Task: inverse folding
């Protein structure tokens, strides 16, 4: 059946509780970092209630997100097989079409929706669609997964959206696809040599980035070589002394053990932390709630990721295992990359923190992914 209402009674409500807490944390951070409540020249704040304009906007997105979550939790996840190919083709078409619409903030990442003042970022949806498409393909080719031809097709499924997203440009979103595909190819028993080559290339790329960003190799020394394959503005993100990187570390350090308290921050309130309610919410939260608050936040994400791997372990079919593993790695990589960026371990690439960063596309995709996990979990005893 397409719609199974009984499945709603079998979902893991522990995940629902964690989601509610994460959403509340998001509203806390957005309320205190909304530009309308802070003064650009001082730490003084405009007197305003909790429900600032951006909090109200994010709350609306969370409500829509819950509808998306329930929809994907109720449907039989096997139906996603039927949507996989069409969803992939539509996603690729949307990633191509974005280059034929006016750029927003000098990049081609969003479709502007007229009359409502909203925008859609297709690259966010592309990550989940690639997971679904790969799960469908790996199950379909299960008897031939050891062949080199199957590996080439699997790589092509990832490579097309990867290159289109990279062209936008959106390096951070594109790179998230790499660990997702590596894990899925490994669990799917794809051509062993191909998987090893992919993992080796990813590790080499990561090591090169770390050596530059951590100052092991001078940023200026590596610049002439790196700019042969990267654009100069992309390479500048590897500068460990960038303002954004330093500002995020200062904000976290200013929070100390217990933080300055809600709406009591100084560094973030003065606007010195860039993108405090989007990419830098982790650092903004750290200044006001300290190390203890950050550890609690990470513990909540750990519970979500652990639940995802539990679903992978109990899934009764190959498609469910691939799908749940891909979704779990997708969530884990967003958390790892965003936290590493704010801690000064990775360059700033604009990867949002799931359910915490302000924005609609990320919320909707994350809730769809988590709803799909629930769909797999509630049907773990059916065939």
Result:
């Amino acid at each position: 059946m397409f719609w199974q209402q009984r499945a709603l009674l079998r979902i893991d409500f522990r995940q629902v509780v964690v989601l509610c807490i994460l959403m509340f944390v998001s509203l806390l951070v957005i309320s205190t970092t909304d530009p309308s409540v802070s003064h650009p020249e001082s730490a003084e704040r405009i007197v305003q209630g909790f429900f600032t304009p951006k909090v109200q906007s994010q709350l609306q997105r969370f409500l829509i997100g819950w509808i998306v979550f329930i929809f994907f939790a109720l449907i039989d996840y096997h139906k996603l097989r039927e949507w996989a190919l069409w969803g992939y083709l539509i996603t690729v078409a949307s990633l191509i079409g974005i280059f034929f619409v006016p750029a927003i903030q000098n990049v081609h990442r969003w479709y502007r929706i007229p009359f409502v003042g909203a925008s859609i970022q297709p690259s966010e949806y592309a990550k989940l669609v690639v997971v679904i498409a790969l799960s469908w393909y790996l199950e379909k080719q299960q008897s031939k997964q050891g062949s080199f031809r199957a590996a080439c097709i699997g790589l092509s499924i990832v490579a097309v959206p990867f290159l289109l997203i990279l062209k936008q440009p959106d390096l951070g979103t594109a790179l998230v696809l790499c660990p997702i595909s590596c894990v899925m190819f490994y669990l799917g028993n794809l051509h062993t040599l191909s998987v090893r080559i992919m993992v080796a290339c990813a590790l080499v790329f990561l090591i090169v980035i770390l050596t530059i960003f951590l100052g092991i190799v001078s940023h200026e020394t590596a610049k002439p070589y790196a700019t042969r394959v990267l654009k100069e503005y992309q390479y500048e993100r590897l500068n460990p002394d960038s303002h954004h990187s330093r500002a995020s570390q200062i904000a976290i350090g200013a929070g100390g053990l217990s933080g300055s308290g809600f709406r009591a921050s100084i560094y973030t309130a003065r606007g010195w932390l860039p993108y405090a309610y989007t990419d830098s919410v982790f650092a903004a939260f750290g200044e006001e709630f300290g190390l203890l608050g950050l550890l609690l936040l990470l513990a909540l994400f750990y519970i979500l990721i652990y639940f995802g791997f539990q679903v992978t372990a109990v899934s009764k079919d190959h498609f469910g295992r691939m799908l749940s593993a891909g979704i779990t790695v997708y969530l884990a990589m967003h958390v790892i990359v965003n936290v590493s960026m704010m801690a000064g371990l990775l360059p700033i690439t604009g990867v949002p923190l799931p359910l915490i960063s302000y924005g609609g596309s990320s919320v909707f995709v994350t809730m769809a992914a988590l709803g799909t996990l629930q769909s797999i979990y509630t049907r773990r005893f059916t065939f």
